[in-house]
Amino acid sequence: AEHSWADAPVMGHLWEYIIGTDMVEGYTSDGRCLGTPEYNPPPMPIRLQWDLPPPALAAIDRSYQIALDLCNDVDLRIYMHTAYGKGFMKECKVSPDAYIQMALQLAYFRDAGRFSLTYEASMTRLYREGRTETVRPCTIEST
């Protein structure tokens, strides 16, 4: 699914614009925003009516059951690690992000006995027509 609208830099620019506008417009002596509010309500939502054939409904039911089974098959344990933080990682000349990526690779290898393809988003929006790019951090150097 397209998700570039929700990349961190987009949200950052949005908040920068909102806060900047607030600062330029200023406030009244009692702390209210200056300016005239503009509000144009969107059209009222309408319920969509679908006419799906029985095979499509059956496929939706099967997909729903598969998704439900996957959700119910999660075993998650969260441990708080307080022995050291990002300062230690930086002392080792490793970025905290790289450290965590390699820790995840090691944990997966110890659990599955093999390496797996990994995905990490990398922000390239500041370059010409840039956007999020994919980094594959599981490399010979990290093993």
Give a written overview of the molecule.
Keywords: Acyltransferase, Transferase. This is Choline/carnitine acyltransferase domain-containing protein. Pfam families: Carn_acyltransf. The model has no long low-confidence stretch (mean pLDDT 85). The protein is 41% helix and 6% strand. It contains four helices and two strands, in the order ααααββ. With 143 residues, it is mainly α. A two-stranded antiparallel ribbon has the order 1-2.
Question: Would you summarize the structure shown here?
Answer:
The chain has 143 residues and is mainly alpha-helical.
Structure keywords:
single chain; 143 residues; mainly alpha; two-stranded antiparallel ribbon; flat; transferase
Shape label:
flat
Query: For the residues shown, what is the average pLDDT?
Result: 85
Main beta sheet: 2 strands, antiparallel
Count of runs of 4 or more consecutive helical residues: 4
Radius of gyration: 24 Å
Q: Could you give the order of the helices and strands? A: HHHHEE
Q: Which residues form runs of ≥5 with pLDDT under 50?
A: none
Q: How helical, in percent, are the residues? A: 40-55%
Oligomer: single chain
Helix/sheet category: mainly alpha
DSSP summary, beta strand count: 2
